[in-house]
Amino acid sequence: MNTVGTSPLAWAVKHLKIYLLDKEFQLISDHKPLEAIFGIRFKLCVHIERWVLWLHTYKYKGIHRPGKENIADAISRHCESIHLVPFDNENYINAVVEYSRPIAVPLNEIDIASASDKEIAGLKWSFRQQVG
């Protein structure tokens, strides 16, 4: 048994573990050799046996669904092939920081905008009345 079908499966469970812990879920795959992981016992290589042991910490039911019946398979076969840049955590974090950072506004612009705002002018007046 090769690791072609097991790698994405293990990756998905690992990255979605927050949502999968203590929940019953289904692992649906069109990769026929995964039946070894789904319950039918075969002699597995050590690498895959480790994944099987790790997956047993979850409450899942493994289901083999042939590619013709598996919607995910149809989508992967018929989508437009575009060149995607591999996901990079560092670049993602940099982009989030860049786009979520508030734009700095100089204090004098805040003073000018506050002076023309009726509500803020009213608040300033009432504070001055209470202090003075």
TrEMBL record:
The keyword Protein biosynthesis does not apply. Keywords: Endonuclease, Hydrolase, Nuclease, Nucleotidyltransferase, RNA-directed DNA polymerase, Transferase. Residues 9-58 form the Reverse transcriptase RNase H-like domain. The lineage of its organism: Eukaryota, Metazoa, Ecdysozoa, Arthropoda, Hexapoda. GO terms for molecular function: endonuclease activity; hydrolase activity; RNA-directed DNA polymerase activity. This is Reverse transcriptase RNase H-like domain-containing protein. Coiled coil: none annotated.
